[in-house]
## 1
Amino acid sequence: MKNKMKHSVLITMLLMIATLFVTAFTVPSVQASASDNSLQQIKQKGYIVMGTAPDYPPYEFIGKDNGGSKVYGADIELGKAIAKDLGVKLKVKSMGFDSLLVALQTKKVDMVIAGMNETPERAKSVDFSKTYYSSGLSLVLNSADDKKIKSYKDLQGKTIGAQIGSVQYDAVKKGIKNINLKGMENINDLILALKSEKIDAIPLDTAVAEAYAAHNPGLKIIDAKMPGQESQNKIAFFKGATSLENAANKTIDKVNKDDLYTKKFVPAAAKHITNNKSQSQFETMWQYKNFFISGIEYTMIISVVSVFFGIILGVIFALMRLSHNWLLHSIAVCYIEFIRGTPQLVQIMFIYFGLGTIVNVPALTSGIIAISINSGAYVAEIIRGGINSISDGQSEAALSLGLSKKQSMQYIVLPQAFKNIWPALGNELVTLIKDSSLASVIGVGELMYQMRAVQADTYLGVAPIAVIMVIYFVITFTISRIMKHLEGKISHGTND
């Protein structure tokens, strides 16, 4: 019987893995082979979705807008120009730079404008427009090192930081030998690492380097002097979107003809870059209180909804795993072991990008689904442990009194099990609140996302981090106290 059960579990797990691979690899190929109606689809729905990573001033960054936040930048102005020429509205979707091409391939966005350069590797997955702006490569370093580092040749033996997935990362990796290269997703993190002397230099697009150096005293930029490393910014489109790409190229031709990017788009973006040099960090953080309040709202929405569905899933799969039905048991084991054996960040990205190829699920909903599913697996094991802690004599006594197995579980076992596992459930809720920060990778505006927004707009690295640390502590400490109070109430009620 045990061998049969193990065999069935193995078959079920293999089927689950096969389903994941079929979803991940067959759907994009179907999309690529479809006929090109990309421009027609944009005009039919009346808007075009632009994906970007808003930590790249003056190209794209997050600024204040009527108490809230909004993405500004020269690339945003270009996106508006393209949308205007197409006769549609522009919608901007923010996410991490290394997630942009995945979002494009899964059609979460219609185009990516993010100071992106074409590379042979990227060209295999997406199509690129004409160049709309060219810029050089500079190095950002601490002013104290300007005599030690004059060009890229002086970087040998040093620690260099670069944004993961950027052409600067590839340029340094291929062009400079004997260096310790550290990749980070966010440029603000790189600047923070540079100022704290964790790294010696950062290769950046010249315009971006100038923006960060201007707002960070103690930093300096120099010409990298690397041959053939001029940045050629282009727009990315999903494979086969020829009609949409051609329409965008017409706008780019007009922009290049009159040099609108440099003369109009960059100055328009510069008006929204915050100047907070005359203010204390406390005053600056207070001005962004609405950002943090919005982050708290999203964090609590994700946490409350996810813990609700997580407990429901936990109860269902705990009972399934304890079931004597081999099929139900096998499904529960596969679910629990697979979810617990894969990183939650990967699960969030798969729900949003992977399943998004079949059903277009919004970022917030995707985050809630992924976190609920993840929480359900852990809660299931907590509940199973609680049920197993109840002696068999309890169930036997209930059956002898005429209760059914279902009634025994509902009225006798589960209430006692929940009393035993209440502290563990409280810990799971606290963990879930902190894990909600992972949803920022797909652009959900929770606390971590808002912290990044404040960093990008103020050029302050540590202060926004300190603020959300305090906020997270206040939330989790308050919930811990509430759970402790309820635990005392439950224990007192049981003793009575």
Note: Residues 43 and 88 are 7 Å apart (CA to CA).
## 2
Amino acid sequence: MSQKSTKRRAFLRNTAALTAATIVPYHFTASRAIAQSKNSRLQYALIGVGGNGTRTCPVPAKVVDVVALCDVDANHLRDGNQLLTDGKADTHDDYREVLQRKDIDVVQISTPDHWHAKILIEAMLAGKDAYCEKPLTLTIDEGKLVRKVQQKTGRVVQVGTQQRSSFDKFNKALAIIAAGRLGKLKRIVVGIDSGGWSPEVPVAEVPDGLDWNAWLGPGPDMPFRYLRNPKRDPGKGYTNGHTQFRWWYEHSGGKLTDWGAHHVDIAMLGIAAAGQSNAPVSVDGTAKHNTEFRDGVPVQTDRYNTAMQFDLHVAFAGSDVDMNIRHDVDNGILFEGELGRLFVNRGKLVGKPVEGLAANPLADDAIAQVYGGGPMIGNDREAHWVNFLHAIEHRILPRSDVHSHMKMLNVCHLAGICCRLGRKINWDQTTESVVGDELAASMMKRPYREGFEIEM
């Protein structure tokens, strides 16, 4: 057995105490795991240091060794290295250098959305387990390829939809539904807020330290744009780059794959918990954009172009439940059933079925059953990482595996196609294909820029 394999096995043995516990304060169990496995922890690299990278890395930093950071912005790389490791990690500006390193076991991918699938696929092929931020892909066809490679390589991939690991709100809501307290579900309202708006954003000089060509990567070639927003801090104005990339279809799916990747996810888990079909068959509705569209393509190229407002309805096979995705209601998910309704978001879980728990509590293991029997330590993002480590230890699918994530994310992608074309999109879940609409079907994939194709 190689030295690396020995270290890996030692780490997994030593983190058993961490992953086998039930509802114990995270800081205590993490500290114990670190003390027990000081020289045997997994070697971790963060690819995409800005934004979500630095926000989510401190959790794994408690239980893995952060040995490398990668970013195409030298400023992010410098600041992130100082913040996360006191400047001790190796730094790279090319993710391929990270994937080639034999000493790295786990990578976290926190790049803009258009880079996710390419880096993830190549990471799995390089033998790395991966934690990848949502949304997992930019297109439906990318999801098919990600799933194929995951099955081929057997790598453990956790998607960063940490709401799946919320025990006190989202999983409790799912447990209430699974216990039949709402009865048969009839309607679900998913509130994900409005998308971004901008005026005309002019072409501007690329900021010092940013490799714009590398940042664009597999996406289409386009000039860097920036306009100062007097309502925001300097450097955080209107742009097609950092922080605001998700308002451009070239890089993202807008609010539908941003908050939608969280709340549509819980909504579809709720349908399954009620014992009803969550296999989508169509998406229909209306949307408003910041620009005119022609055949699904924005006519103007100098402003945000993802959907700002939307009122969409998703239908499911063999079920009369209607899922309504809206911008103009409270952020969260409203479940309405024959016996009552509840509302859940990151701040609250309310409704008569929730109030009824005082007199008629759920079974002791109800939430654990919904969660899938994995370790229940901490909550939300912390628990999500512990679940990921547990899945690595046992070589099993984590809580947010790529297969169930893509079934949900395909709904978000179809919603985006519906918004761009302004018409109903029909879907065959068995073949995972758009039905009866050649143009819509062509939007299931996008070409990669030359030199940035996925390396298989």
Note: The first helix runs from residue 3 to 14.
